[in-house]
Amino acid sequence: MAKLYGLHRSTLHEAVTKGRITAGLDGKGQKVIDLSEMIRVYGEPSGSTRHSPTPSPDVLPTLAKDALHPLLEELRLLREEVRELRNSLQLLEHKPAPPLVTKSVAKSSGSEKHQEPATWASLFSALDE
């Protein structure tokens, strides 16, 4: 980092000691400074060229575009399927059937059990029996 930024090593050691720069430990137990930490404190290193993380489509070679075409088509189809599923979910409405209460109904041939939808009135009448 010192070479990259044109600083003396002691300057970086002092910055870490005073807490201006955060240093971590690598697998060997040595202090290391992340580049993002250096950029936060000192800015972009001089002489470095910034690269965009993703190249623009016109920069991609024709071969890469041809290789991406099936993937892009699959992505388009998946998005369409998700859109259709969301529309289907909006059309579905959950309507649970009301619980049924067994009620004895007396008929001339004897008592017969009959089921009707549960309402407050039917629940109270069932409790009275």
TrEMBL record:
**Keywords, A to Z?**
Coiled coil
Q: Which domain of life is it from?
A: Bacteria
- To which species is this protein native? Pseudomonas violetae
Region Disordered, as annotated, extends over: 96-121
Q: What is this protein called?
A: Entry exclusion protein 1
Q: Look up the coiled coil feature and give its residue ranges.
A: 68-95
